[in-house]
Specification:
The protein has 104 residues and is an all-alpha fold. It has two domains: 1-59, no CATH class; 61-93. Helix content is 81%, strand content 0%. The chain has helices at 4-12, 15-27, 32-59, 61-90, 100-103. Helix 1 (4-12) crosses helix 3 and helix 3 (32-59) packs across helix 4 (61-90). It is elongated, with a radius of gyration of 29 Å. The chain starts with a helix and ends with a helix.
């Protein structure tokens, strides 16, 4: 394919649109503007639900922070457990033990 818009169609358009583009471009049955319009429509169809979800968090940023904080808390617990296992396997303690030479 020579036209990069055709590549966009392959990624974002449905099969029927891709078929129309393939046929229309090869036969000069459609113009570039029409082809680009179909590609833009496909992109809008994909992006619209994402934009709507984003808008929910944009209107209430606390929701996003709550999700991040909850995830961070869960990750911290898992990482803590993992580090406990690592320390145990390596024989490392978090307890400070004063060397005998300094105890005097």
């Amino acid at each position: 394919d020579v036209c990069p818009v055709g590549d966009l169609h392959k990624i974002f358009s449905d099969r029927s649109t891709i078929a129309k583009v393939d046929e229309g471009c090869r036969s000069a049955g459609i113009g570039c503007i029409e082809c680009k319009s179909w590609a833009a429509d496909a992109l809008v169809n994909i992006l619209t639900p994402m934009q709507e979800r984003r808008r929910k968090y944009e209107e209430n940023p606390r929701l996003a922070w709550d999700i991040l904080e909850a995830g961070s808390s869960r990750a911290r617990k898992v990482a803590g457990n993992t580090m406990d296992e690592v320390r145990e396997a390596m024989g490392i303690s978090l307890q400070y033990e004063r060397p005998d030479a300094l105890a005097k």
